[in-house]
Automatic annotation (TrEMBL):
Protein name: Glycine/D-amino acid oxidase
A Pfam family this chain is assigned to: DAO
Source domain of life: Bacteria
A GO MF term: flavin adenine dinucleotide binding
Length: 423
């Protein structure tokens, strides 16, 4: 199997393919860093990712529950430090707004229907009582709608570096995965059905199966199939450059922080979203510091070469201004963020991921043989890593997967995702 893209999803696919006895070549344009973690250019960059079950779509809840069990299997196989740092996760905010992360009422309804336990915090006082980091008077929208909250007690912060270390280690242990560094410039399907991939240094790779996990660089690879990401005004694929920072706890503060995600409370735009992590201390540099980010950006584009990967001071300023309003004094040193970073989302036109076989034309249910694709992760793919690696291998090798029924939202043939390559 040839896998193009060695981010978290491609690496997971490599592991699953090798476990099934396939010989795998994992090709990435960037070398694996000495740490064995993600490279600094793709969407897997960084230290922490949120793991949550709180989804309004029941199919998605089933998928994340499967992924959760698979993360634990991976941990058990190697022992040592866990991948998931489990902790309470708070979704809170305006119960009436619908964002691309869902709507709080719908999420509660979905948990109720599936019989998944959660704690309900019915008003600002209840939220501030459980989490005294917040100012109760800030827990409402600018026009006065009081916040509500949902707590998932088994949320988790995914340790990104550890996840890579574990999956890479297990893949290496099979003895069947080799890695190659090169920019894939051409992909061809031979009459035999075999795939031939060529890189910019002239190297050619042959295999029976092909999996593509290209992150923000999807354009060049889709072009090989006569496809392009949808670019219709108002419904176009785009890259979002996101900014984040780590904030030290205020001196002497040992107050409890949940993993948290806030649904809109700025004066300028009700859809603005902020989220953060406790000080999970995955590295010495971040010990005692909390990662906090805005889930929106002022910087969108379609050419990955336009990415500066420089954090946007305006966004860091937004985060600071918001935290000053939201938090009790004395819990966080808001004035001294460190380790500011930028990382890229690959946003689909409808905000959902794309996972499936590769269609021969946009919105057509005919597919290239023995090939599968994951792209447009839209800022939410990491938690699914072990499951999506398996699904991609299922689809490339057999054309189907046992998880198909729950994956239809992510279809590669849904309307408005791909268009024909013009010119
Ligand atoms: C700031 C931020 C916060 C996020 N938060 C969360 C979260 O809390 N929870 C969650 O579940 N998810 C989250 N995500 C999303 C998650 O991190 C991504 O969905 C995931 O990392 C995508 O992995 P990937 O393997 O698809 O892509 P990438 O990691 O981008 O890997 C793609 C790889 O393909 C390679 N490549 C591309 N084209 C070629 C080519 N032509 N030739 C050779 N190599 C090529 C690239 O070099 C790259 O290494 C977040 C993302 C960001 C940026």
């Amino acid at each position: 199997m040839l896998i193009v893209g060695g981010g978290t999803i491609g690496l997971s696919a490599a592991y699953h393919a090798a476990r099934r006895g396939l010989k795998v070549t994992l090709i990435d344009r960037f070398p694996v860093p000495p740490t064995g973690g993600p490279n600094d250019f793709g969407s897997s960059r960084g230290l922490e990712r949120m793991f949550r079950i709180l989804y309004s779509q029941q199919e998605r809840v089933r998928l994340v529950e499967t992924a959760y069990a698979m993360w634990h299997e991976l941990e058990q196989q190697v022992g040592g430090a866990p991948i998931l740092a489990e902790q309470d996760l708070l979704f809170f905010g305006n119960p009436d707004i619908s964002t691309f992360e869902g709507n709080i009422h719908d999420i509660a309804a979905s948990m109720d229907q599936l019989g998944i336990p959660y704690d309900s915090l019915e008003d600002p006082a209840a939220i501030a009582k459980r989490y005294p980091i917040f100012r109760p008077e800030a827990l409402r929208t600018p026009d006065g709608v009081p916040y509500v909250g949902l707590v998932q007690n088994n949320g988790a912060t995914i340790n990104v570096q550890r996840a890579f270390q574990v999956v890479r280690g297990l893949a290496d242990r099979t003895g069947r995965v080799s890695t190659a560094v090169g920019l894939v410039t051409s992909i061809a399907c031979e009459l035999s059905g075999d795939w031939v991939v060529t890189t910019d240094d002239g190297a050619r790779y042959h295999a029976s199966y092909l999996v593509l996990c290209p992150g923000v660089w999807l354009g060049g690879l889709l072009a090989q199939f006569g496809l392009a990401p949808a670019s219709k005004a108002g419904a176009a694929w785009s890259i979002w450059q996101m900014s984040l920072a780590y904030f030290p706890r205020a001196a002497g503060s040992s107050v409890h922080w949940p993993i948290w995600y806030e649904f809109g409370n700025t004066k300028t735009d009700a859809d603005r979203l902020f989220y953060g992590f406790p000080d999970v201390g995955f590295t010495p540099d971040t010990t005692g510091r909390l990662k906090i980010s805005a889930d929106y950006t002022y910087s969108t584009f379609t050419d990955p070469a336009a990415a500066t990967r420089v954090p946007d001071p305006r966004l860091i300023g937004d985060i600071q201004a918001h935290l000053r309003e939201l938090l009790q004094p004395g819990v966080l040193d808001i004035d001294h963020p460190t380790l500011e970073q930028a990382c890229l989302y690959s946003m689909s036109p409808d905000g959902d991921m794309v996972l499936g076989r590769i269609p021969v034309a946009p919105e057509v249910e005919q597919f290239w043989p023995n090939a599968a694709l994951f792209c447009m992760a839209s800022g939410r793919g990491f938690k699914y890593t072990p499951l999506f690696g398996r699904v991609l291998v299922d689809l490339a090798t057999t054309g189907k997967t046992a998880y198909q029924a729950d994956l239809s939202d992510f279809s590669t043939t849904r309307a408005g995702i791909f268009q024909r390559l013009s010119g």
